[in-house]
Design the sequence.
């Protein structure tokens, strides 16, 4: 049975992404709402893991933590090359599409890390 993927957006991600995902009924928390402003990247990952959330970030330091073996429930890394509204809307639409369809296929194709369920 497919399991819904829940996301946590770190402080580098634009709040418009969270707003758009919520409008599409995707479960998402943000660093601001979670009281984690200025928290370390490790603390962000710890919080996301404790909540069973995949972290969405534009901070490449999370990739270094992944390569160092820090446990997490998943990292979505996105390079933002433009800050204009059109680019943000495009990113939001693609991310919402990814979140919806990846959620449906995740159990079948990859499997869920039960420690993050």
Sequence:
């Amino acid at each position: 049975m497919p399991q819904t993927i829940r996301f946590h957006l770190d402080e580098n991600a634009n709040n418009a992404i969270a707003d758009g995902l919520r409008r599409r009924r995707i479960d998402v928390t943000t660093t601001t709402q979670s009281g984690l402003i200025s928290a370390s990247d490790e603390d962000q990952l710890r919080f996301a893991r404790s909540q069973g959330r995949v972290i969405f970030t534009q901070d490449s330091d999370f990739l270094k933590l992944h390569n160092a073996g820090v446990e997490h429930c998943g990292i979505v890394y996105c390079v933002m090359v433009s800050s204009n509204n059109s680019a943000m809307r495009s990113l939001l639409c693609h991310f919402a599409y990814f979140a919806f369809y990846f959620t449906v296929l995740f159990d079948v194709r990859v499997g869920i890390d039960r420690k993050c369920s």
